[in-house]
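dumping these here so i dont lose them again. two proteins, back to back, each one seq then structure tokens. dont judge the mess
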Amino acid sequence: MSKERKISVIVRSKDEERWIGHCLQSVLDHISVPEIIVVDNCSSDDTLSIVNTFQHDPMLNNHERYASTKVLTIEDYSPGRALNMGAKEASGDYILIISSHCVLRKIDLDMITQHLEDNIAVFGNQTPFYNGKRIGKRYIWSHFGEERVENMYSQMEERYFFHNAVSFFKKEDLINYPFDENLTGKEDRYWAQDVVEKGNTFMYEPDLRVDHHYTDNGNTWKGIG
């Protein structure tokens, strides 16, 4: 990074013991001293125990293996409400939202922050894995190509396409333009429609990359076979 910047990372979770450790480790591998905020929807497995293994002990000086980690419990859950809750608690100037079953593979923070000078948000490239097997980018995955796109529009969905499984914002923008808390899904698409109608732009950046792993409850996977 060309200059010091604080990144807050928001991760939603519910029974994500299989992947959340991989997700958080990948964040630590790519971002120096992040603030991690896990918004947990009453997990009943070992999700939170795994999250706690990443909590930084102030008596230790090893910031490469640990992070400032905060767990927020949400009972009246909706995707937008969880993300808005995390944004309000964030102390960083920039916010990364990442799915708890995504593994961060590539990020250029200088490039991302440059994008955010002119755009309200940046979302990244996803490679789908089904039980460990990389699968072809068909259906919804076909949106994640190798060309940079401003205000991506989906002919398939007939609306603007924004996906928050890996997405970056300035905190002030996410506070000023929160997600709709009444929606049970696709809150990111409706958010994109709203911000574009209000005169903003967002960017798809193919060099911001994650592996997106299948889970039974993963909304992105539903209906694609």
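---- next one ----
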Amino acid sequence: MILKKLFKLFTTFAKIGGITFGGGIAMLPILEKELIEKNKWLEENELLDYYAIGQCTPGIIAVNTATFVGYKQKGIIGGIVATLGMIFFPIIIISIIAFFISNLLQFEIVLHALNGVRVVVAAIICNAVVSLAKKSIKNTLTAIIAIVVFLLSFFISLSPVLLVILSAFAGQFVVKGGEKL
């Protein structure tokens, strides 16, 4: 039974890692579908929490999230298996691309294809941002935090880690009507 669950963790994250382009936030909709809707491994708030923690910890967000989910499902071995699943196809694909990259970038068709991929990734990221904002901005104070963080990151280019820490502090200590955010 444990091997079956570990295999499911590996294959689920291998699929996510193999079909997601754009990394981090671009894979949030796929993570929601696979982890919440299909496998029922997480609640929506858990995924958002893992994703937020993955954002402010060292490493790649998707890998960090996979590690957290795997750990929740099957402890340390689950975290390792989920992480290996997440990086399995990207390592293969990147290795192949690295081998051929100098030759491939000489072809105009490849450059146009990459431009098309960039547009799709931008659209997926916008969709994920809007979806995440709808789920996270629950009142005026959280809207103010979101706007301030956006302005600080856009105009001042503060470190995302610092912004997450400041937002966590604001969320913990800003009180409205006796209730925390």
